[in-house]
Design goal:
With about 350 residues, the protein is an all-alpha fold. About 70% of the residues lie in helices and about 0% in strands.
Length: about 350
């Protein structure tokens, strides 16, 4: 719904509203002590989202895939008027016609299997899927583990929510400056070190356990927000939604596993922190194998996605450089009609 320049602020900004709901949950739980009534209280307001049907526009790309070209045209014209930009009708028709041709029934659409069909895409996909699983599992594990930290459960839960505000704010100011890979890797490594450091905290220093757990929560929140942006830029355009959907599926697996990891605290209290910390530390190191996407031309086709971030031999790099130079300098000029005719006759 937004252009590339505002995509980071819009995407991360939405997470701040997620955090607001997270913090409000503690307030609901404080006044509604019965868990069944609490579930009803936090579920009923979601009925209001039905009103979105009349306010949120449909995706122009989706309308094109369904052959609803006129609706897509009307939508884009409304958007241009809203932004105070005049969109020439000819340019709009050309754009929509080109996209509608790509969405024709005989057009072979990429599928999830394309992510595993090519070696470089397969390697990047596996790394991203693992990092999504670890980020989600650790995030929800730390969110739900507050009752085992000692002290007041409600206060711990609110603090756990408030640390997400600086975490997302940090992303807004750094992702476009320092790069996606540095932020993702750095935050995961910091989270892993903080969680493993809990092992060395004296038994009488419970406040230090809470502090280290909150540092781990803050940094894993930042990495969780960063991986959304990073993943969207890793997958080529034609399969981006599929790649993000598959990544989110692995994140849900991490969320499912998290409560069982927390339950291991009955065996040994720091054990969940050891498991979460070790996985996050390993995931942070493995993220270094992913290519940086900041200020890079992002892949559009499956072929682009396979070549993106792939290490080429010196010979192939030289060939690619030569091709780029030929494209930049108009070396090959079109033949004149008469020359073209002679050329065709000689070929014949």
């Amino acid at each position: 719904m937004v252009g590339p320049r505002k995509r980071l602020v819009a995407g991360v900004g939405c997470q701040l509203f997620f955090t607001t709901g997270y913090i409000l949950t503690a307030g609901f739980a404080y006044f509604i002590t019965d868990w069944r009534m609490l579930q009803v209280a936090i579920t009923v307001p979601s009925i209001a989202f039905l009103l979105y049907w009349w306010f949120i526009p449909e995706s122009a790309r989706w309308l094109l895939t369904k052959g609803r070209v006129q609706e897509a045209k009307d939508l884009l014209q409304r958007a241009s008027l809203e932004n105070g930009v005049e969109m020439p009708s000819e340019a709009l028709d050309t754009l929509l016609n080109n996209n509608s041709e790509d969405s024709a029934p005989d057009y072979k659409k990429p599928s999830l299997f394309d992510l595993f069909r090519y070696p470089n895409l397969r390697r990047k996909s596996i790394l991203l899927f693992f990092n999504w699983l670890v980020n989600s599992g650790t995030y929800y594990g730390l969110s739900w583990h507050v009752s085992n930290l000692g002290g007041n459960d409600y206060v711990n839960f609110v603090i756990s929510g408030f640390v997400e505000v600086p975490a997302y704010t940090f992303l807004i100011f750094t992702l476009n400056r320092w790069g996606r890979k540095l932020i993702l890797c750095g935050c995961m490594l910091t989270s892993g070190v903080a969680l493993l450091a809990i092992l060395f905290v004296p038994a009488d220093a419970q406040w230090l356990v809470v502090c280290l757990a909150m540092i781990g929560k803050l940094t894993i929140t930042s990495s969780y927000g960063a991986i959304y942006v990073f993943t969207a830029e890793q997958f080529p355009t034609v399969i981006r939604n599929v790649g993000l959907g598959a990544s989110s599926t692995f994140a849900r697996i991490g969320g499912v596993i998290a409560p069982y990891v927390i339950h291991l605290s009955e065996i040994w209290m720091p054990l969940p922190f050891v498991i979460f910390g070790s996985c996050v530390l390993f995931g942070g190191v493995m993220s270094l194998l992913l290519p940086e996407t900041l200020n890079k031309k992002l892949p559009e086709s499956i072929q682009d996605g396979e070549l993106f971030g792939k290490k080429l031999s010196k010979k192939k790099k030289k060939q690619q450089l030569d091709i780029e130079q030929l494209n930049e300098v108009d070396v090959i000029k079109p033949l004149k009609p008469q020359e073209n005719g002679v050329h065709e006759k000689q070929n014949g």
